[in-house]
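FORM 7B: Structural annotation worksheet

SECTION A. Query
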Amino acid sequence: MKHQHDQDFESLLRDKGLKSTPLRLALLEILDLAISPMTAEEITHRLKKVSFDRATLFRALKTFTESQILNTVDLGEGFHRYERNCELHHHHHHIICTSCKKIEVVPFCVPDEFKKFLTKKGYRQISHRMDFSGICKSCT
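SECTION B. Predicted structure
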């Protein structure tokens, strides 16, 4: 699923005040085409055209997360996954197949009613984390 629309990657980096490097451009291209959140290991395997070291990759991931180009996804696996932050998938959740481990985006937020309720009770800066699991159609 392609996320990048009118703006090319160099413009995106420039708009965020970031230098355009071969690693950063390749990283954006890989994550732009990803259909589900990727681990650093998965990203590393797809970065074949660019020379880099692991520390530089993690710095780029951290910089992109801090600049809100990427979102980190914690699915309780003991490590983070990364996905593009774009207008198509602003706030969303994921479903993970317990059999094949495929991850898909749930393109809406179920707890909005809970947030409204908690806001009425006086809570502010409310956040949540919710992911779903099940067995996908291919595995049933």
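SECTION C. Observations
The first helix runs from residue 9 to 15. The chain has two domains: 9-89, 93-134.

SECTION D. Sign-off
Analyst initials: ____
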